Amino acid sequence: RSVVPQKDLESFQAHLNSSTRILALLGAGLSASSGLPTFRGAGGLWRTHDAVELATPEAFGRDPGLVWQFYSYRRHMALQAKPNPAHYALAELARKKEGFMTLSQNVDGLSPRANHPPEKLKLLHGSLFDVKCSEFFCKHTESNNYTDPIVPALAIPTDESDPTTISALQARELDISDENVALPELAIRDLPRCPKCKRGLLRPGVVWFGEMLPTQVLDDIDKWMADSKKIDLIMVIGTSAKVYPAAGYVDSARAKGAKVAVVNMDRADMPASGLYKGDWFFEGDAAQIVPEILK
Ligand code: BJW
């Protein structure tokens, strides 16, 4: 059953069909229905820690063990999650429309796993499955490292006292996002170490606050923008659009004439600025709305 008002659906689809240069800006809300929590608002806490505060170089410098436990947990959850219908609908649109480009802030690997064409998917904030050396002088990086856990010490503990007969270890995993579950003690020597310089700790290949976004990604987007005399549409899906430079692409697209379609669970969460009010606001679960409006 449709959740989108017919009039909005028709006007949006008419515009989409006549559009040739289209952007989608994606955020954590896109993957919420796949079971992955967002950053802000409900679900933005990991144990007692604000998820946004763990996503900083300072947090890693202070307590690399805690930050690795956070990211190792998220790698594990992301690997268990499945892309939802919105990931697939966007991948399909990317295959169909020549001038379509997705800018994703998500690091969960769900768009790649939905077979989104890679040349039309720019990962603004990196990937949970890339790792790199944390030493400034060492440029070692590894892409698509899906080892889970990445080192034995980061294995999610299981409940050995669980009387269940289920033999699969997975069924007895403790939920370490619950602050009442004790985190295993970690020694620095047990954390992932750079195989190249042998000195630095490896860290997740994601972009933390105060860090530059990947240069190649920024260059590709700048080129796409420069090649577009006019941009017809930007879809802003499941993001609070509060983090820059990502959120700035909405303004840049608008400056080139783009209409803005917002898909979000919560109208009140969008920045107050008129720029984000959107020509269309589709309120609800992206996993349901995106396939419907892109049909
Ligand atoms: C649903 C739903 C459902 C829920 N369906 N919807 C200009 C002005 C002010 C500040 C700056 C500026 N330029 C740069 C800055 C500084 C900073 C910044 O932006 N700060 C602001 C917060 C004020 N930016 C940076 O530091 C960036 N780097 C940079 O600019 O480098 C150059 C530079 C360096 C030094 C000095 C100056 C410049 C880097 C930003 C990196 C962000 N990294 C993170 C962590 C990534 C790794 C990880 O995943 O752990 O990226 S933070 C976090 O926020 C993550 C996300 O990608 C990002 C955006 O969050 P997102 O996706 O929008 O999630 P939420 O939770 O905020 O929103 C979810 C939405 O979904 C909500 O609206 C819900 O309602 C909705 N929803 N369920 C549909 N089912």
TrEMBL record:
GO terms for cellular component: nucleus. Keywords: Metal-binding, NAD, Transferase, Zinc. The active site is at H125 (proton acceptor). Zn(2+) binds at C133, C138, C194, C197. The keyword ATP-binding does not apply. One of its GO terms (molecular function) is protein-malonyllysine demalonylase activity. CDD domains: SIRT5_Af1_CobB. PROSITE patterns: SIRTUIN. Transmembrane segments: none annotated. Pfam families: SIR2 (PF02146). Residues 2-295 form the Deacetylase sirtuin-type domain. InterPro entries: DHS-like_NAD/FAD-binding_dom, NAD-dep_sirtuin_deacylases, Sirtuin, Sirtuin_cat_small_dom_sf, Sirtuin_class_III, Ssirtuin_cat_dom. Signal peptide: none annotated. PANTHER family: NAD-DEPENDENT PROTEIN DEACYLASE SIRTUIN-5, MITOCHONDRIAL-RELATED. Belongs to the sirtuin family. Class I subfamily. This is DHS-like NAD/FAD-binding domain-containing protein. It comes from Zopfia rhizophila CBS 207.26. The lineage of its organism: Eukaryota, Fungi, Dikarya, Ascomycota, Pezizomycotina.
